[in-house]
Design a protein that fits this description.
single chain; alpha/beta; Rossmann fold; Glutathione S-transferase Yfyf (Class Pi), Chain A, domain 2; 2 domains; six-stranded antiparallel sheet; globular
Length: about 375
Amino acid sequence: MDRPHVRALTLSHFRSHKRAALRLDGRPVALFGPNGAGKTNILEAVSLLSPGRGLRRAAGEEIARRPEALGWKVRAELVAGSRFHEIEMGAETGQSRSLRIDGKPAPQLALAGLARIVWLVPAQDRLWIEGAEGRRRFLDRITMSFFPGHGEAVLTHEKAMRERNRMLKDMVRDAMWYEAVEAQMAEASARIVAHRAQAVARLAAAQDGAETAFPAAVLSLIEAEDSEGLVTADDFATALARTRPRDIAAGRSLVGPHRSDLGAVYAAKAVDARLCSTGEQKALLISLILANARALKAETGVAPLVLLDEVAAHLDARRRAALFDEISALGGQAWMTGTGPELFAELGDRAQAFEVTELEGQSLVREWERLT
């Protein structure tokens, strides 16, 4: 099978799973069971096969199973075309996370070269009506799927900005103290802005002409007033130097991509996403994740892994069937969770199903014969 997929996944002392082992054949994966049984924990383990802190953005100590607190491990066999990789990660108590790929220590960014992963979780359901920070994080995750180095640019900007903010709060006025750190911020800012703009363009292209039951979204990047029109590193460096007196008064940096926002309009109705119904907002999110996956497949030739937590419960039967058809057409391995097998009945034998239950504080996983 050419499609990229996880062939085997083993969890040890990971969240609610003392031990879990799944053997997989590349078809979409349906995980069902009661709330709190440990389904999302499995998706979180898969999400850690990409750079970053996973779909919950959890620190290592939060992942280890309680009350044992013995540390945790995730092992995965990843197949992508003719390539096969063994990935092992984990953390002992009180230590930082380690990663080994094919038996050798590796940095987090090395995961980006193995497989692309996109996801949608219930915490994102309020994306359009909450603060801009969550939308920036959502956009940056999508952007990083296209440009693995985007995450490094964001981290570089954040680190330099923290240093600049410290000097601003200390009311340092000597320009020489700022020049080096502002140069770092400016260079990272230019990369971030360029990456985000290209990611939005690719999402738009992936939505154009797509026959789908999910609504298209017209996306826009909204910049703070003082950041409008800033594109190059020189643009940002000049702006940071110009606004330094005002930033000293505010005690923080007020120019840069950390103040951007993502705008979205329900295209068919010309309605801002924040004014749409809850169901429409969810459908727009699903549409963007599917567009992200289609764009990645068009660019790389292979579909990404798609993680959809509790997605079926929010859709009527028509849209559930449409979602499953799109996932099957995409040709990648999707991981989906829901409370019962009936939510995935339209998938039939196109998916591999597992029941996740909880007994005496421990999650148990067993393969299910058929969804129908």
